[in-house]
Amino acid sequence: MNIQYLISIAVYMAAVILIGLYFAKRANKSTDNYFLGGRSLGPWVSAMSAEASDMSGWLLMGLPGLAYWSGLASAGWTAIGLALGTYFNWLIVSRRLRRYSEQVGAITIPDFFSRRFHEKHKVLLVIASLLIIVFFTPYAGSCLMACGKLFAQLFDAEYDHMVIVAAVFVLVYTFLGGFLAESVSDFMQSIVMFVALIAVFTVGIANAGGIGAVIENAKEIPGFLSLLTSADPQTAADGSVIFGKAQDVGFITILSGLVWGLGYFGMPQVLLRFMAIRDEKELKLSRRVAMIWVVISLAAAIFIGCIGRVLYPTAYTTYGAGQTENIFILMTTDMLPALLAGLVCAGILAASISSSDSYLLISASAVAENVFHGLIKKNATEKQVMWVTRIVLIIIMVIAAFVATGENQVIFTIVDFAWAGLGATFGPLMIFSLFWKRTTYEGAVAGMITGGVTVIVWNFFISKLGGIFEIYELGPAFVLSSAVIVIVSLLTAKPSAEIEADYDAVVAK
Q1: Residue 235 in 3-state DSSP?
Q2: DSSP letter, residue 42
Q3: Which of these, 62, 141, 154, 334, could form a disulfide with 411 (CB 3.0-4.6 Å)?
Q4: Integer Cα distance of 393 and 410 in angstroms
Q5: DSSP per residue, 361-426
């Protein structure tokens, strides 16, 4: 069985490497090609690579694990928030960002903000770059955790060793082809993820005796199949799981789930796809493709967790140690032939790689293109920028691998924090930069800092107060950042004529 797993995953990994090799020559022609693919993405690649890079390993492990443990409520409201955020991001932000980034000649998100406000001292550029590294490094670590758990369970290997294997593979692959290779392979990986979710969902339903049987069995668990109540699993003295009375899902819990959607407005890995699409007229098709993929994938992931609870009610007895996040792997290896199971498990690898390569490339570009080239050595050659990029890639991957060590961490928890940080740091500023002419440079700097700091303070300190303060930190951070941008912008001098001219030119298109 191990050999068949290995064959399946090796075939998949070889395909990813070949894509990197194919695009390596083109990617290394210039930093524009390496970081943004020369703005040449088609609508299908743009849509599906955006969603694959966004969802990461938590879609196939974190979300099913949450649903397995407590039922529909927490996972369901989060999925609804994500679906709404996906739709409005593609509808509202994509077209304007495509135009504006081309108008000012930006190839990264920090670069866009810097050029949008014509800053001279690159303060905004540096702050944005540093915040990307702060929040993307643990995000990349969560992807390596998913790979580590996958390999450890499939091959009965040491978890930390498997994290290192995954880190080396992702690093080599990202070295080769840059953004274009990443986007094309992410397109392939989105298909693998989608097929894996549908396959496990279908086989799970069949093994459980049909949808009716799943529903009837799940109904026996108090609060499990409701969006307004949550299951209350408890570990008994003998190690088994018993369920107490259903717990009411309060307004704060529902709002926290829906607030996840706000994060999309600040996700660099998604926003870059908007900037890279070859023609803004194709964004409408991209939006439709993205929505279909997201809705079906999220629903399948949640119901896989619910089906897993019916099929394996005592397989995992605790959530905090991250055990339940293995339910997808357990169902796959237990219900499918080994060779096919290996291919399905490649879906987890696909989810993790498609995100971690994006996070690495964005983080590296933040340092190499924005800080090194934009601030330290403005006359740096293309070759020098590429060398710095690869050095930074190695450093960030080492830190991400360190974050991923320790098998008992929960993937969903790490993603939860990183998502809030990026969403609150860049989301409000992105919206105001694109749609409010009066936004000033001072307001941009103040708003960005406010968003990032609020997420950290709220997560580690304020949320511990309980009650209303338990709301997901993205919500208050997003609101505070928006308020600061407006207040500071109104209190400072209006933007220069050159900045307003750029804005008017974009609006007039």
Answers
A1: strand
A2: -
A3: 62
A4: 25
A5: HHHHHIIIIIIIIIII-TT--HHHHHHHHHHHHHHHHHHHHHHH-STT--HHHHHHHHHHHHHHHH
Total tally of structural domains belonging to the chain: 1
Two tokens, residue 263: 């994060």
Contact 71, 418 (CB under 8 A): no
- The helix/strand/coil state of 29 is coil
The Cα–Cα gap between 345 and 342 comes to 5
* Maximal CA-CA distance, the chain: 72
Question: How far, CA to CA in Å, does 355 sit from each of 22, 106, 274, 361?
Answer: 20, 22, 16, 10
Taking alpha carbons only, the member of 471, 480, 469, 473 closest to residue 459 is: 473
If you search the block for the tokens 């690649």, which residue do you land on?
Answer: 45
Long-range Cβ pairs for the range 495-499 (8 Å, 24+): 495/117, 495/437, 495/438, 495/439, 495/440, 495/441, 496/118, 498/118, 499/116, 499/117, 499/118
| pTM metric for this prediction | 0.88
Return d(Cα 322, Cα 411) in angstroms, integer: 7
Give every CB contact of residue 1 below 8 A, 6+ residues apart in sequence. 333, 338
Residues 338 and 451: their CA atoms lie apart, in Å, by 47
Distance, C-alpha 300 to centroid of its chain: 18
> What tens digit of pLDDT does each residue of 343-362 get?
888 877 777 776 776 777 77
Cβ neighbours for 219, distance < 8 A, ≥ 6 positions apart: 225
The DSSP output letter for 90 is I
Q: Which residue has the tokens 């679906």?
A: 83
**CATH assignment of the domain containing 306:** 1.20.1730.10
Tokens 């943004």 — which residue? Answer: 36
- C-alpha distances in Å from residue 503, one per residue of 379, 451, 462, 492: 28, 24, 38, 18
The mean pLDDT of 283-311, rounded to a whole number, is 96
The CA radius of gyration of the chain, in Å to the nearest whole number, is: 22
| In the predicted structure, residue 315 carries a pLDDT above the cut 90 | no
Domain range holding 301? 2-508
Rounded CA separation 108/113 (Å): 9
- How many residues in the chain? 509
3-state secondary structure of 231: coil
- Weakest-pLDDT range from 58-62, 248-252, 272-276, 426-430: 58-62
Q: Which helix (H) or strand (E) holds 452?
A: helix 441-460
> Closest by alpha carbon to 31, among 270, 372, 269, 326?
372
Contact (CB, 8 A) for 95 and 277: no
Kindly state the helix (H) or strand (E) to which residue 229 belongs, with its residue range: strand 229-230
> Distance (Å, rounded) from C-alpha 275 to C-alpha 96?
9
